[in-house]
Every structure is written in C-alpha cells, then in structure tokens.
Specification:
Helix content is 26%, strand content 26%. By secondary structure, it is α/β, with parallel strands linked by helices. The strands form four sheets. Strands 5-2-1-6-7-9-10 form a seven-stranded mixed sheet. Strands 12, 13, 14, 15, 16 and 17 form a six-stranded antiparallel sheet that branches. It has a two-stranded antiparallel ribbon with strand order 3-4.
C-alpha cells in the first residue's frame, strides 16, 4: 500500500481524536493547519487553539494562518507536495486554490449521515428532530457545502437519553476510525466515491441561544428532545419568576391527571421537579441557575423557596 503525504485541517477539540488516530495509525500528517489562537470568555483572554495543543502533544508541525488562501501559505503547502488534505471541524470554507492543491483533493469527516444535516450543527439537529441514528460520513470536499461524493459512512444509534455533548464525544472518536478506513482505501487505490442523493439533502443551520428557550406548551417528548439537543450549549433555558435557569437533564413521564397548566409544577422534591407540558410531564432531574452550578433537582428544591403556584416560562 502506497504512503500518503497528508495535510490536516482542523480547529475545534472535535478534531483532536481524529488527529491522534491518524498519528497512531501510521498516517501522521506532514502539517497540521488550524486557526490562530483566539480570545474567549468575558475577560477575552487569548487561549491556545485545541488542535495546536494536540499537534504539539503528538510532535506534529503546526501552522496557524490568518488566511489559508493567502498566496504565501498556498506556496508553503505546494512545497510539501501533499497527496491529500484531511479536514475535520476546521470552520473555513476551502476555495478552489486549496481544493485543487493536493493530488487526491481533500476529504472531510462530517458528523451526520449525508445528505442529511449538511451544515454547522448536525449533531444538535439530529437529536432535536428525534432521529434514532446518526454517524460519520467521509466525503470529498467540493465548493458547495457538504455536497461532495461519499466514500464511506459509519452509523451509530443515538441513545434514548443521550445529549449533544455525549454524542459529540462519541462521534469525534468514530471520525478517527472512519478516516483511517478512508485513507487506507485511497492509499490502496480501492476508493470509490458515490454522489450524494441531492433531493434528500437537509441542512442543519447554526444553533443560536434563542433556539434553547423551552416552550412548555409543547409535548413533554419535544421538551426532552430540546433539552438533550441544547446540552451543554447553548442550554435549554426557562424562567421561574425573574430568574433564568438552564435545564440540564430530565425525562418524560405520563400525566395521569392531565389538569396542569403548561409550565406549572405538579410537584418538586428530591425525586425531581415535575413540570406540566402540552402533553404529559417532564421531570427535571438536573438544573443550573444562570451563572450558577449544575445541581440535582433535590439540591435546587432545598436551596430555593418555590411557591405552590410556581410556573416555569
């Protein structure tokens, strides 16, 4: 099997497990390309990019161009004579000058079963929509977003109580396995790319903070999907009086009486905060006050004076 000279593009921590898998599996990149270090948090302190730290830990060379399409950086890449680019969670749309540079173009690990959920937030949207399965798709990158021909997919079920954070961690690990299989098939000359079924394509737009506001008039099943999709970020938000809270965890149970007002509390204690919805009950088991810590429902109830007529929303 022929060896491949690889340039790796990635910026978020989602890309780090795949980078480690390539190094350990004999496909160490010639160069790791990531975004420049950026300010974060209220203090706007500059933090090291996670992929840069991962590359340093793996003793891999790393570049952080402001613009990966700048002529001087294109010249630097050309000097490497790469066979292929591997892109995962880079956050920059690659233009023609980069797409055509490697011999075999670029492949991308995308966190959905394409053509479903092209775009920025496939993991959250798959949970929010109540999908039973998702996975990783390895495709060739073209100029149209997430529309390139597919080399392979790895499917995994979505757990009945799995939130977006937990699923993201699993898919990050799965992406490394899928990329290894893809590179092996390309190196051996056995890779076969198949065009996507364009009429089936759906898009997963970026999730914004207002998307996380809970509408208690929705059925409890919909509330549960929203909570799981918005955890840990941006959070499933609700209000109790003047204060805002983030619902971190809970589950659906049947409403045996069906008399409650959506958002109203049927009961609140150590076992959870039972909230009426448009249909059935959503029992909150973990909740986080705005700018506070994640706590169990029991801790919350013990620390807050909740009137009998309290209502979320």
């Amino acid at each position: 099997m022929a060896s491949l000279k690889i340039v790796f593009f990635g910026s978020s921590d989602f890309a780090v497990p795949a980078l480690a898998a390539l190094k350990e599996g004999g496909f160490a990149p010639e160069l790791v390309v990531t975004k420049p270090d950026a300010p974060k948090g209220r203090g706007r302190k500059i933090y090291d990019n996670e992929v840069k730290l991962g590359a340093q830990e793996l003793s891999l060379p790393c570049a952080q161009p402001e613009d990966p399409h700048a002529p001087e950086f294109i010249e630097q890449l050309n000097a490497l004579k790469p066979d292929i680019g591997v892109v995962i969670s880079y956050g920059v749309l690659l233009k023609h000058s980069l797409l055509t540079l490697p011999k075999h173009g670029h492949i991308n690990a995308h966190a959905s079963l394409l053509p479903l959920y092209r775009g920025a937030a496939p993991i959250q949207h798959a949970i929010w929509d109540g999908q039973q399965d998702t996975g990783i798709t390895i495709m060739r990158i073209v100029e149209k977003l997430d529309a390139g021909p597919v080399l392979l997919t790895e499917t995994t079920p979505i757990g009945p109580n799995e939130n977006a954070g937990a699923l993201r961690d699993r898919l990050a690990a799965l992406s490394g396995k899928a990329l290894m299989q893809a590179l092996e098939s390309i190196a051996s000359g056995k890779a076969r790319f198949i065009d996507q079924d364009e009429p089936r394509a759906t898009y997963a737009r970026k999730i914004e903070k207002p998307d996380g506001v809970i509408d208690w008039k929705q059925p409890a099943t919909k509330v549960s999907l929203l909570v799981r999709a918005m955890t840990p970020k941006p959070g499933a938000q609700t209000r109790l009086g003047a204060k805002r809270f983030i619902v971190m965890e809970g589950f659906v149970e049947k409403d045996l009486y069906g008399m409650g007002i959506p958002g109203g509390l049927q009961s609140a204690g150590e076992e959870g905060i039972r909230v009426c919805t448009g249909k059935d009950i959503f029992r909150i088991t973990r909740i986080k006050p705005d700018n506070g810590r994640n706590m169990s429902a029991g801790e919350f109830v013990r620390g807050h004076n909740i009137p009998p007529d309290a209502r979320f929303g």
